[in-house]
Amino acid sequence: MAVRKVTVTIPEDLLEEIRTEADERGISAYVTEALRAKRDRDRLQELVRWLEEEHGPVTESEQSAASAELAGLDAEHERRRAARSKHTGESA
């Protein structure tokens, strides 16, 4: 994959937090991951706007149902993460 070096300006306090969290991955990998996530969120928001234009806004009951389903998925992911940590001896 081709890469290009760019210069960005980041507030010092944020940079220190990033350095702490990026550890061995490095700042470039951390920033690349963050930019990809932001781009993906922007694309999802664009899709939501398009779908709402086509089908109308999401109702409260639809939002509640989706939130409940997401909570269930989050709980399942956490259960699996805890089981994996217990199995491998890692901290969750």
Q: Which properties best describe this structure?
A:
single chain; mainly alpha; 3 helices; 75% helix
Uncertain spans? none
User: Total strand count, please?
Assistant: 0
On the 0-100 scale, what is the average pLDDT? 93
Count of separate structural domains: 2
Structural class of the secondary elements? mainly alpha
Count of alpha/pi helices? 3
Characterize the main sheet.
Answer: none
Cα-based radius of gyration, to the nearest Å? 19 Å
H/E element order: HHH
Determine the oligomeric state from the structure: single chain
Globally, the shape reads flat
Relative helix content? over 70%
Distance between the termini: 33 Å
The percent range for strand residues is under 5%
List the helices and strands and how they pair.
Elements: H1 12-22, H2 27-55, H3 60-88
Question: What does the model show?
Answer:
The protein is mainly alpha-helical and 92 residues long. It has two domains: 9-57, no CATH class; 58-92. It has three helices and no strands. It has helices spanning 12-22, 27-55, 60-88. The two termini are 33 Å apart. The relative contact order is 0.05.
Write a short abstract of this structure.
The chain is mainly alpha-helical and 92 residues long. Helix content is 75%, strand content 0%. It is flat and about 45 Å long.
